[in-house]
Amino acid sequence: MRNPLQEQLLKAGLVKKDKAAKIVRDQAKQRQGKAPPPPADDSIDARKLQAERAERDRALAAERNAEARAKEIRAQVRQIIETTKVKREGDSAYRFPDGDKIASIFVNDALRAQLASGALAIARAGEGYELIPRLPADKIHARAPDMIVLDHGRKEGAAAPSEEDVDDYYKQFVVPDDLIW
Q1: Which of 5, 29, 107, 123 has most Cβ atoms within 10 angstroms of its Cβ?
Q2: What is the secondary structure of 50-112 as a DSSP string?
Q3: Vertex 21 angle, CA 17 and 27, to 5°
Q4: pLDDT tens over the chain, length 181 residues
Q5: Residue 122 burial by Cβ neighbours in a 10 Å radius (0-12, 13-18, 19+)
Q6: Going by C-beta distance under 8 Å and a sequence separation of 6 or more, which residues neighbour residue 114?
Q7: What is the pTM of this model?
């Protein structure tokens, strides 16, 4: 069954028979849905908007997860400091650098020796400072290195020189035994 218009065009010789058959097949395919419909501009815009929205949502979720992780780490560090802090006692001021300022805490001679040897470290606890032993200081340094203010036991940079090299170097400087600054 052909279209009457197609029949007239064929009789007039304006269209060839195989060209008309091809058009009929294409129309049948479109009616049956076998050929994919061309994408509409609205659907392309909608897909683009949906992809942008999904990307923005992923970025916000990643940011929220990072903030939650940072909050969790700060809570862990506070807990480590509170549970392992060493009781400070003494009347001798121990001064140390904290960024651009010089801070001080009061310690006795035994605590001063432990700080100098690296057995104790100084950690920032809120607005103040606390003395903490070596192992918890290493745990804090692994989680939040900016919370450790002073740590003579941890050497930054390259390989640490041996004790003999350090002793030989410092033999050239004469320092009184009772020096406290």
Answers
A1: 123
A2: HHHHHHHHHHHHHHHHHHHHHHHHHHHHHHHHHHHPBPP--SEEEEEEETTEEEEEEE-HHHH
A3: 145
A4: 557 877 888 888 888 888 888 888 888 888 786 556 555 666 778 888 899 999 999 999 999 999 999 999 988 899 998 998 888 888 889 999 888 889 989 999 889 888 888 889 999 988 889 999 988 898 898 888 888 888 887 765 444 456 666 677 777 777 676 767 6
A5: buried
A6: 120
A7: 0.54
* CB proximity list for 132: less than 8 A, separation 6 or greater: 80, 81, 84, 85, 86, 120, 121, 122, 123, 140
Q: Are 131 and 111 in contact (CB under 8 A)?
A: yes
Written as one string, the DSSP assignment of 19-56 is HHHHHHHHHHHHHHT-SPPPPPHHHHHHHHHHHHHHHH
Could you tell me if residue 99 is left (phi over 0), alpha (psi between -120 and 50 degrees) or otherwise beta? left
Q: Would you say 147 and 130 are in contact if contact means Cβ atoms under 8 Å apart? A: no
Q: Crossing angle of helices 41-84/134-143, nearest 10°?
A: 170
**Residue in 44, 16, 134 with CA at minimum distance from that of residue 84:** 134
Residue position matching structure tokens 């479109």: 30
Residue entry with tokens 């745990």: 139
